[in-house]
């Protein structure tokens, strides 16, 4: 472990040992014997913590603070040992750092503890602590080396004008767990390892708010955004080529405004909403909403949205949408949940949208689609008649341009349907408003009962 450019504001930085019961030692200017010119660890810089759950872990750090309020600038904090953080604040401490460099190279001894509690994170706030970092850089190269991490109720990390790079597997950019929160303003994050989302929450939920900045992920199974909590992003950009752009697990949410998202991995999808049953996220109803900006999946196969073993509430508001595969949404059973009951339920609403592509589902899955406020869909719905249910509502300002015969459980139409010679069939026993009748549609096709 190495610290360069040591300084302390007001001479009150704390050097502490927690070992079982809390004990506080050497309150004053931090002096780390044997650490300033070598990478040898100092056992007095070790805290034993049970902050975020029942699992106890030992955290060492280059800079460590327990309680109190400290401010520093123009620092370089370097950590190289296994499970070692560069900056670690606990016990309701408050730490402000500006114009500084944070570097870690050590690996984690437990990927689970890294993802759940922040073990080996470069910057770690726990036990109701708050870290504010600005005009700085964070770089990690080890496995499970998350850039910045807030864990536990009341714990927070606020970053502004910060650049984060993480290259190891399981090295996320920022994470919040167990009720922690992270706020990002003009933060640019790049990850290259597998399972290394730039922004993510994990077990116990968390809140992340991002304004401006950018996200880039190139590792396998590394979406830009992974939510087991509440994630809000505005005026940002996301690109990934090894995964989806965004994932919601369980009853959690992602809300985006004026943000661009793109993914290109063949055989994946643009956005996935699911329940893994791993215990990382509670609930089965995920919510994804995007207003303005763009959402593009350029892979040759795979849908723009995939909903499985859960309910996905999807709302698009005046978004530029690209689904190169030709499939906008697929609700179906997959690799999670109990076979026979692990389908997806998609509730899809388009406001002011121009959509091109198809909606598909399997026999365990359902789709409810609403086109509103001048929306248009060019595509087919349930063309193979496989879905458990598939319903469509068009308001008076919206249009469906049918590209293949489609099968609906029910249709509520106040708008326009251009059939292009195709037939739209409905289930008369489930759609009494249509009265079991056959209707002529614009373009030479018809709307008629399945039986």
From TrEMBL:
Keywords: Membrane, Transmembrane, Transmembrane helix. Residues 66-79 have a biased composition (Polar residues). The chain crosses the membrane at residues 16-34. InterPro entries: Autotransporter_pectin_lyase_C, Pectin_lyase_fold/virulence. Residues 38-79 are annotated as: Disordered. Signal peptide: none annotated. The keyword Glycoprotein does not apply. Residues 38-62 have a biased composition (Low complexity). This is Uncharacterized protein. It comes from Candidatus Moduliflexus flocculans.
């Amino acid at each position: 472990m190495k610290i360069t450019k040591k300084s302390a504001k007001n001479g009150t930085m704390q050097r502490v040992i927690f070992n079982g019961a809390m004990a506080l030692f050497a309150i004053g200017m931090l002096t780390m014997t044997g650490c300033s010119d070598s990478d040898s660890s100092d056992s007095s810089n070790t805290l034993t913590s049970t902050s975020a759950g029942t699992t106890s872990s030992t955290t060492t750090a280059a800079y460590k603070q327990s309680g109190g309020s400290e401010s520093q600038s123009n620092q370089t904090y370097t950590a190289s040992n296994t499970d070692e953080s560069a900056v670690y604040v606990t016990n309701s401490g408050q730490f402000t750092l500006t114009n500084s460099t944070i570097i870690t190279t050590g690996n984690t001894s437990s990927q689970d503890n890294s993802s759940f509690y922040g073990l080996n994170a470069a910057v770690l706030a726990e036990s109701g602590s708050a870290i504010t970092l600005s005009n700085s850089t964070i770089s990690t190269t080890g496995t499970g080396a998350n850039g910045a991490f807030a864990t536990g109720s009341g714990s927070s990390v606020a970053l502004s004008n910060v650049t984060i790079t993480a290259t190891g597997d399981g090295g996320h950019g920022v994470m919040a767990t167990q009720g922690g929160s992270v706020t990002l303003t003009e933060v640019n994050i790049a990850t290259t390892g597998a399972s290394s989302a730039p922004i993510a929450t994990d077990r116990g939920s968390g809140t992340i708010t991002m304004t401006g900045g950018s996200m880039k992920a190139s590792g396998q199974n590394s979406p830009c955004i992974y939510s087991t909590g509440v994630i809000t992003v505005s005026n940002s950009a996301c690109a990934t080529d090894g995964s989806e752009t965004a994932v919601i697990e369980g009853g959690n949410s992602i809300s985006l405004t004026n943000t661009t998202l793109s993914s290109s991995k063949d055989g994946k999808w643009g956005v996935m909403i699911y329940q893994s049953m791993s215990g990382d996220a509670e609930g089965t109803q995920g919510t994804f909403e995007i207003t303005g900006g763009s959402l593009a999946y350029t892979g040759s196969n795979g849908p723009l949205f995939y909903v499985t073993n859960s309910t996905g509430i999807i709302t698009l508001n005046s978004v530029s949408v690209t689904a190169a595969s030709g499939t906008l949404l697929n609700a179906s059973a997959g690799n999670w949940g109990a076979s026979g009951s692990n389908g997806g339920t998609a509730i899809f609403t388009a406001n002011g949208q121009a959509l091109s592509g198809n909606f598909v589902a399997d026999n365990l899955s359902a789709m409810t689609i609403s086109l509103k406020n001048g929306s248009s869909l060019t595509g087919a719905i349930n063309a193979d008649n496989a879905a458990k249910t598939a319903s469509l509502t068009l308001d008076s300002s919206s249009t469906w341009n049918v590209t293949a015969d489609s099968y609906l459980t029910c249709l509520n139409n106040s708008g326009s349907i251009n059939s292009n010679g195709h037939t739209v069939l409905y289930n008369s026993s489930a759609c009494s408003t249509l009265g079991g009748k056959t209707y002529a549609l614009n373009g030479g096709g018809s709307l008629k009962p399945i039986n």
